[in-house]
């Protein structure tokens, strides 16, 4: 039931963001509702983490870090997928609204990927005795982060140029090819990795699964809200650029 | 316990910080747009 709710949240957030991107000016008011839902879920998720999910026998209290590390994965992949989808739609239609969606997805995806890369070592230090190891999962995740940080650099260096939009659209589409390597890194390493395998296949106890699931749903809607806010900002910048070109013409 | 608090604090600070940065950038963009029009 929780995994179905997570799936529905992903589909719902994707549908809402695509609908919103088509006319951000008229539809931005709906962002309040999404922000409200995301904010209301935070205390529920924290309660589940603190009181409902049991303390894991082997790791003790530090296992609670998983409830913030694992949910950050979905917004990371979701953001980079949005970047590729927005890029593909931009290449097809040459409509700037899809380019704005691609940039928003990449930027918010990088925020969540950074969180994952910071929170993971906070768990690894007490669990492994090291902040970082050059394990296949950690290394591929860091590479994924670099790919999309480079995307954002490319955009910031060539603001408003159609060539930059086309180039980054292609780059964003190519970038998601790295995601399967990250996701299957533990399987690809064939036992030579320190990182735990994907929790869905390991099977968590029901209470832990619910805490992770609610965390995922919460992060998906926080992600969607942040993407909407970033889209609004991109639309304002585009208006400013048009106004500036009109004045100088 | 300090590790757990650190992980949740980092998450909260990062997400709230990013949201506040977006809000400040939005206000600056609106001011810029008003100045140009």
Q: Give a short account of the largest sheet of chain B.
A: none
Oligomer: heterodimer
What is the CATH topology assignment of chain A? Four Helix Bundle (Hemerythrin (Met), subunit A)
Q: How far apart, in Å, are the first and last alpha carbons of chain A?
A: 58 Å
Low-pLDDT runs of chain B: none
| Strand segment tally of chain B | 0
CATH class of chain A: Mainly Alpha
Written overview of the protein:
The complex is a heterodimer of chains A (249) and B (37). Chain A is an all-alpha fold and 249 residues long. Chain A has a single domain, classed as Four Helix Bundle (Hemerythrin (Met), subunit A). In chain A, 80% of the residues lie in helices and 0% in strands. Chain A is built from 12 helices and no strands. Chain A has helices spanning 2-22, 24-27, 30-52, 66-69, 73-93, 96-128, 136-157, 162-175, 178-183, 185-188, 199-202, 206-248. Chain A is globular. The model of chain A has no long low-confidence stretch (mean pLDDT 87). With 37 residues, chain B is mainly alpha-helical. In chain B, 95% of the residues lie in helices and 0% in strands. Chain B is built from 1 helix and no strands. Chain B has one helix at 2-36. Chain B is rod-shaped and about 55 Å long. The model of chain B has no long low-confidence stretch (mean pLDDT 90). Chain A binds chain B through residues 46, 61-62, 64-65, 68-69, 72, 108, 111, 114-115, 118-119, 122-123, 125-126, 222, 226, 229-230, 232-233, 236-237, 239-240, 243-244, 247, and chain B through 1, 3-4, 6-8, 10-11, 14-15, 18-19, 22-23, 25-26, 29-30, 32-33, 36-37.
Short key terms for the protein model shown above:
heterodimer, A: 249 residues, mainly alpha, Four Helix Bundle (Hemerythrin (Met), subunit A), 80% helix, globular, B: 37 residues, 1 helix, rod-shaped
Quick take:
The complex is a heterodimer of chains A (249) and B (37). Chain A contains twelve helices and no strands. Chain A has helices at 2-22, 24-27, 30-52, 66-69, 73-93, 96-128, 136-157, 162-175, 178-183, 185-188, 199-202, 206-248.
């Amino acid at each position: 039931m929780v995994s179905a709710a997570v799936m529905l949240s992903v589909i719902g957030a994707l549908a809402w963001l695509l609908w919103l991107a088509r006319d951000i000016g008229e539809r931005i008011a709906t962002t309040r509702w999404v922000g409200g839902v995301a904010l209301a879920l935070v205390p529920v998720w924290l309660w589940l983490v603190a009181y409902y999910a049991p303390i894991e026998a082997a790791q003790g209290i530090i296992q609670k870090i998983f409830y913030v590390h694992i949910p950050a994965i979905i917004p990371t992949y979701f953001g980079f997928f949005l970047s590729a989808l927005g890029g593909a739609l931009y290449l097809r239609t040459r409509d700037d609204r899809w380019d704005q969606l691609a940039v928003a997805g990449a930027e918010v995806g990088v925020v969540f990927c950074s969180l994952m890369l910071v929170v993971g070592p906070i768990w690894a230090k007490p669990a492994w005795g090291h902040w970082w190891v050059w394990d296949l999962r950690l290394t591929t995740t860091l590479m994924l982060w670099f790919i999309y940080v480079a995307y954002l650099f490319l955009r910031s260096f060539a603001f408003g140029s159609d060539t930059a939009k086309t180039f980054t659209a292609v780059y964003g589409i190519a970038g998601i090819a790295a995601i399967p390597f990250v996701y299957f890194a533990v399987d690809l390493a064939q036992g030579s990795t320190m990182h735990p395998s994907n929790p869905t296949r390991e099977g968590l106890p029901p209470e832990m699964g619910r805490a992770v699931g609610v965390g995922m749903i919460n992060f998906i809607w926080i992600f969607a809200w942040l993407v909407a806010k970033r889209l609004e900002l991109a639309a304002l910048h585009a208006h400013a650029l048009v106004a500036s070109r009109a004045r100088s013409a | 316990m300090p590790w757990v608090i650190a992980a949740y604090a980092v998450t909260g600070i990062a997400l709230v910080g990013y949201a506040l940065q977006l809000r400040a950038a939005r206000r600056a963009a609106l001011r810029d747009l008003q100045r140009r029009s």
